[in-house]
Amino acid sequence: KSIDLADRDKKSLSTYLHDDILQDILSVKNLTSMLDGNKKIIELIDTTLEKLSFSLRERMFDLYPSFLSENELIVSVENLIEKLNKQFRDKIVIKCNFPKSWHPSVKEKHLLYRIIKELVTNVYKHSKASMINLIIEETANIIRLVVSDNGIGISNNKLSYFELAQNHF
Fold it and tell me: How confident is the model at residue 10 (pLDDT cuts 50, 70, 90)?
């Protein structure tokens, strides 16, 4: 039940950020066009609000990716890949093998999406890979996610896992 509360809280926060905070920011941004005065200040306000709006929107979807409630997991992962290819300007081929008859719950899709996003983003940032394979298998109520790539890997000689973990979330 604590997980249900956490999900409900995330959804509530995401909705609040979208319906209240983001809408107010967009209203202020629209009001700047009505100001008479220093164009540089108006442009700075406009640019700042646009960046803030984009940042809030991204964080809302990180907290509670609402599109997962409406889309299949594979569609959401394909959209993520497209976004990452644009963001990193690297065209990594990603092959997804998800069970066709599998219909995960919204909760399972959220969890898997977050895990896949973290792992795939790390591949883009660090591995110099040109290919990623994503496999999801489901048997006997056990979900198995396999993510592999053809990147450079992590040398055991450089840093221990503990040393790596100290410098990162």
Answer: confident
